[in-house]
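Inputs:
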Amino acid sequence: MSTKQPDNFGFGEDETMLRDSARKFFTDNCGADKLHALVAGDFNPHRESECNWDRDLWRQVVELGWTAACIPERAAGIGMPRVAAVALAEEAGRVAFPSPLLATFMASFVLEACHTAAADQMLEAIAMGKPVTLAIADIAGSPEEVETDVRVGADGCLSGSVCLVQDARKCDALVVSAGSETGTGLYLVDLGAEGVEIVPDHIIDLTRDQASIRFDGAAAIEVGAPGSAKAVVEAALPAILCVLSADMVGAGEWLLQTTVEYARTRIQFDRPIGFFQAVKHPLVNVMIEIDDARSLTYNAACAADVGADHALRLARMAKSRASDMAVFSASRAVQFHGGIGFTWECYVHLFFKRQMHSQTLLGDGRHHRHLLAEELISSAA
Amino acid sequence: MAQAQHTDTAEQNEFRAYCREWLENNHPGWPDVPLPQGALELSDPAALEWLQGWQKSAFEAGLIGCDYPSEVGGGGRENCQLIANEEMLAARTPYLPNLIGLGMAAPTVFFHARDSVKQDLLPKLFSGEEIWCQGFSEPGAGSDLANQQTFARRDGDNWVINGHKVWTTLAHFASWMILLCRTDKEDKYNGLSYFVVPIKEALGKGVTVRPLIKLTGETGFNEVLFDDLIVPDEYRLDEVGAGWKVAMTTLSHERGAGPMVTPASGGMSTKEESGVSTGSPASLIALAKTQARGGKTAADDPLLRDEIVKLIIRRQAFRQNERRARVSALTDHPMRIPLQNKLVSSELNQDVAQLAYQIQGAASSLSVADERAPDGGQWQLAYMNSFGITIAAGTNEVQRNILGERVLGLPKSK
Ligand SMILES: Cc1cc2nc3c(=O)[nH]c(=O)nc-3n(C[C@H](O)[C@H](O)[C@H](O)COP(=O)(O)OP(=O)(O)OC[C@H]3O[C@@H](n4cnc5c(N)ncnc54)[C@H](O)[C@@H]3O)c2cc1C
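Outputs:
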């Protein structure tokens, strides 16, 4: 099946308006200076694990309807296409927004693909602003093996543990894959419940939190029947990879523009350093990689929206290019800021660390290329 | 770049159906003489003549010059060249021989020549009857294009031209040249003027064309010497001293970033079944499957697989960038993607052909003359020729300067 994709990638008036209002909201509320004050108070490399975010801003985000935007109408959402979530994720990445937004998008894509009453009920809660995260990855971060160490007991309660859960301490609930005799299913757990312990990781990215979660007879609601997890996650994966890629695109653009601004104003040898081609040309290369990643991301999200068979393939392409771009944009930004770029003081490190975190999350560039090779090279005539 | 609609207009829809049907019945097939990989290397008059026949029939059918007004021989349509190009690409038609004429001379003449000149010259340009060439580069004016030394001296209603052009593609077949030259030695930029010059009729009388041999051993470009060539003033484009401005129209189209869409045919030099499409990752995969590697094939080598997939992704990104560039709501700066066009596509083609060397291993030492060369040695030839494109039309280093300066706003390197 080749489903025709619209020439505007599905960005109609509503999606564009949503994006523009998000950009304005972030410009008004989320300057890099404020972000630095919020998340970078403690520079000690051995500091306690932190979770710094602005709950009040999150409440405003909910009021603006962002969590409801892509929830289907059957679950009291607005029913916008996934490109709307991509647009919001890109804007959030542009300010390295510390929030459960990305995690909640990802969890909602999985819940939407469950098509069960229990899942739809949680989607309604998400539309109202409940932050929910997702645990489907193994320790290498690969979402291909939905098999986690969590088991469902005869009583329907969970035991075992999951790792690498994003923004766990900002969320109220968790969607987790868990196994039983009859196969791997998907379950919903209240993160404040009895028998649930959040064990925070010490991570480098200051704009996120991450944790392992231990279950010891934790009560859970089945949202996807045993045996369904693999198919459900696969259906949701294109959109999941796209919002993460979009975050990297946004952060990449901030790194590019900030570095360009610095290169225009920092004078050495009587000229702005952006005059020198050893600075100018790599910045152009960063721009090219961002544009590639951005177009691939929109295209993949649009393919997922129209239900194209190859949406996952396109999303892997987007994640691969975006991950490589993330590393490149981050490294050039630090390098071209010189000594100041190497300090805690300079805001660049906030985005640098977010990019380095995102690029390996849910599989780095090479991981996705490996899977693409299986599909594209092994099948080509 | 022309702003295309989000969905085809009624005119575009109808035109697309027409093109498709015409191409189904009128694909020209393939000539008895071999064609070089691209029009830049055309040197056999028989090959040229055959291709001119193809261009003429496509023009007469209305697939070339679609968006130009009918007074100058165009189709008088709106945003339809893109449609014709897509259909010709899908039909895998041969390339068009008059590529400098269609891509650079036509828009420049159209935007800057007087009406009588447009009406006179453009129809035969579109039909391919008259081949055009571009006289910009000189021994001392390459990347620094404004450093023109070829001089046009005014003599009543005429201009007398003396100078030396190099790398002039297709000058050996050309009837006309678009010429950038100096009319004032005091002012580097405002001292330039722009002419269209009938060179074929002046061969031996003020114009000498000498072939230059390319690194591949092929020819296709030349040096052109002017010795008191007399050109009437009506062939001047725009004002005296406005040559740089006119040249910008040429260059923006040359780099795929101008307002007129260049008529482009399928770009093929051989029938697909009998030839390899260098530049295409699919052909690269097919090649890899034929190359033995330790009991398996090159297509099983994990390092090569990673590189192949990287190129597939870049190709896909290029295509999606072209689509996104047409949606103004999704571009921050209108020239950001169009100005990447030639830079990105030429490096992509170069990297694809380079990877073919690694895939073939030592067999990549074989040339097109060796019958044991995988895919007829076309990859090696394509790799060598790919430098033509990373150098021509403003080198890719110059493209990076332009992007850094015009799009990112970094200080000028001049
Ligand atoms: C296949 C082919 C076909 C061509 N066809 C035509 C034609 O039909 N008509 C025509 O007029 N010309 C044509 N050209 C010429 C082409 O436009 C020039 O070769 C090109 O502009 C470069 O000029 P140059 O060769 O003098 O190199 P130079 O300008 O001397 O450049 C040499 C090297 O220095 C680098 N360099 C120069 N300046 C800078 C700078 N400011 N910053 C960074 N790096 C710099 C260049 O990128 C290049 O790597 C053709 C060239 C080729 C290869």
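Remarks. The longest strand of chain B covers residues 221-232. Chain B touches chain A through 48 residues (CB under 8 Å).
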